[in-house]
Amino acid sequence: MTAELNSEILHEVFQKRAVNTHKGDYGRVLLIGGNKYLGGAILMAASASVDSGAGLTTVATDATNIGPLHARTPEAMAIDWADTVALAEQLEKSDVILVGPGMGTDEFAVQLLKTVLFGVTAKQILVVDGSAITMMAEHNLSFPLNTFTIATPHQGEWERLSNVMIKYQEDIPEMTELQRQNLNIDVLVLKKYHTQVISNDRHVELRIGGPFQATGGMGDTLAGMIAGFVGQFPEPRRATEAAVYAHSAIAEQLAGHNWVVKPSFVSSFIPNFIASIQTNL
Ligand SMILES: NC(=O)C1=CN([C@@H]2O[C@H](COP(=O)(O)OP(=O)(O)OC[C@H]3O[C@@H](n4cnc5c(N)ncnc54)[C@H](O)[C@@H]3O)[C@@H](O)[C@H]2O)[C@@H](O)CC1
Ligand SMILES: Nc1ncnc2c1ncn2[C@@H]1O[C@H](COP(=O)(O)OP(=O)(O)O)[C@@H](O)[C@H]1O
Ligand SMILES: [Mg+2]
Known about the structure:
- It is an enzyme of class 4 (lyase).
- The chain is α/β, with parallel strands linked by helices.
- Helix content is 47%, strand content 15%.
- It has a single domain, classed as 3-Layer(aba) Sandwich (UDP-N-acetylmuramoyl-L-alanine:D-glutamate ligase).
- Helix 2 (39-52) packs parallel to helix 10.
- It is globular.
- The chain binds ligand NAX, adenosine-5'-diphosphate (ADP) and magnesium ion (MG).
């Protein structure tokens, strides 16, 4: 039975911060994506990670995106994703790695994705989104065996990756669960109207949110939130569920006075939303 994902998850996951802590205690998050044409995707993921409260956010992206990133989100650090030495250093020291938003699917992107999939370790958490999911499907790549992996496909991306057609995703959820296990995904966030979050201990469904979220960048923002949440809150399954719930709860609040809710608008309300549930005072 699929249970409803409700606001209780927020109270379970959001924890008051201990006073004697510092940025190193709240996650070193590395976001990899944004080619020359899709830089906005990784910029949106970056602001979502920073606004979620990640201790340190670093972006590995096409060099053309670094100036715009710094102008919009100066809290984030950046490296040129073609700089193999800087990339290897960041890959080694990060706690959470998100790969895929706006990455594109060209040969450079495929090689970069392989570097990430082969380079992650058991101490890290990997979040795979967007173009990275499409490339995994196209090139038959495997998720790493020893790294906790969260995949965030929309239905079209899940169809490519799992070969479960969208109509069967709806009618026969058991096929999706079987493929989640076969593909070695620890948490599957199957994004759609009524997003599902499926992990080995439970299967929950989101029943808030709405078509005011049907705008490019909404998933890139969710991916950045998930990275920021798993970087700072314990238990990545529950932290992912909390991110999925908070993302749509914020959008729904904003939809009261907005026809569409811009993804960057959602991000800007994350700190306020978390504080409405949990304060540091
Ligand atoms: N400003 C930017 O730079 C943006 C960059 N983006 C990036 O562009 C790349 C391609 O992603 P896209 O998703 O746009 O394109 P894709 O071509 O990968 O997927 C979209 C296709 O999937 C189908 N589909 C079926 N069910 C769906 C569902 N429930 N939700 C969404 N689509 C569904 C759509 O009809 C469409 O044909 C990704 O890396 C993504 O991160 C997008 O996020 C859009 C904004
Ligand atoms: N009609 C809808 N109702 C609820 N949520 C929606 C709706 N349309 C889109 N969303 C949400 O918006 C996000 C879109 O993600 P995605 O398709 O990856 O966007 P992008 O890649 O453009 O950033 C998902 O979280 C999805 O659940
Ligand atoms: Mg997407």
